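#random but structural
TW: two for the price of one
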Amino acid sequence: MTKFALYVELKAKPGKEEDVAAFLAGAQGLVEAEPDTVAWFAVRFDKDTFAIFDAFDSEAGREAHLGGRVAAALMAGAEELLAVAPQIRQPTVLADKLPG
């Protein structure tokens, strides 16, 4: 069972909403190369509010993801794309249902 997660809320700058959406859609390929990322979701709540939710079996997997290519690319583009700094939370998974 997954026990570790990340929840990252993103608020796009005015006029950058579709750039954030494209960044998130393009990040899927990078995440697929991460063997310890059990589940990964990029979602859009409204015009300018987005989030990423990831789940991991271990703290090491979560830390590897935080030090990985998606996080680096997000932080590199944050000033240009985001109205506020990403809000990174590290919740504990209480229960899950995953395919497989």
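TW: number two ↓
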Amino acid sequence: MAARSKAETLAWLRQIAGELATATLKRLEDTLPWYREMPPGRRSSVGLVAQAGIRSFISWYDDPASTPWIAADVFGTAPRELLRSVSLQQTLQLIRATVEVVEERISSSTDQSLREPILLYSREIAFAAADVYARAAEARGLWDARLEALVVDSILSGEADDALPSRIAALGWHGHGEVAVLVGTTPRLLDVDQLRRTARHLAADVLIGVQGARLVLVIGRSEAVTGPGVGPRAEDPPLGGPPEQQPPAQPQAEEGGSAPQPSFLDIAESLESGFGSGPVVLGPTVPDLVAASRSARAALAGFAAARAVRNAPRPIAADDLLPERALAGDPLARTTLVNRIHAPLRDHHSPELLATLWAYLDNGRSLEGTARELYVHPNTVRYRLKRITELLGWDPTSPRDAFVLHAALIVGAINEPVQVRRKR
């Protein structure tokens, strides 16, 4: 039998289009479990896409120059939410099932002239599907970037509202439990993907925000940390001294148990290379992401004051910069100094500790000068200084700790009413 002309083939394709659509839906039902498990509304939408593919093939066969319109013809009938519920892999399975049905129907006919057009069209439709999903992914990436910037801005400004948890969930935030904020300078070439990979390797998640010359990372652990030794929080009682003298941030792994999670300072050290030159400051730990604005305020204040510290390490904890932050006008640092140093000394059952520390610092950290002012033996001064170290965690005989303690005494004295200030 002679091969059909193109006009006869088109007429035959239009005649069997309904048959092909019915056979395609049955093939989807029989071979694709995800299609069978879909709600009726979604299945109907997928069926519309399959039918549109058959109609588009007939139009393409009539005019191959219509290739640029394939994506619009086939996927334009699908509702927008279908792209979110059907993956690219499932879409390619749908295309394969449709093409197989058409090929089988053509094979049963005596005219084999459609086999090559089917192969060409299936290639074009596969590329069109990939293009649709690539555009959707790009749009979602831009939206996620804008949403992430909005969330970071809300955390930095402290203007968190009821919508913040839902926005965080929309970003796919994997962290839960404690959070800390890391602030530094923005590098000339920011590699966001590398920062995220590094965080994932350390079982952490990050939100990244660029504030002009500042790079802000909100860090959360992907797994909750429980048990002793998880490190101080921003709201913990004013005990224990500076972070470097606190107990280890993570418990030691027991023999045969899982390895301990890295502390926030360990995570910050791994992320430090992603920042530009200049200081990198880690804010204190807070219980959750909604409370991250407190850590952000401390980190930003520390970032502004870190230039006053010679040879500051990268990263440096914001609580290691309490005197500099207080001098720069940070009220949170002033409150922390009072609560952690001045108040424990003022309320201690041995009032001579506060008087001894004042005298020791005012006399240039001289044991003999302090002893003469207080009419005690220098060994008594040594004993009291040791008790102060045990109580606060800061050592008055260390130059840096002495500076922190002196700043705390000054701030505490300023905050107290006139009648209870120390007598000179």
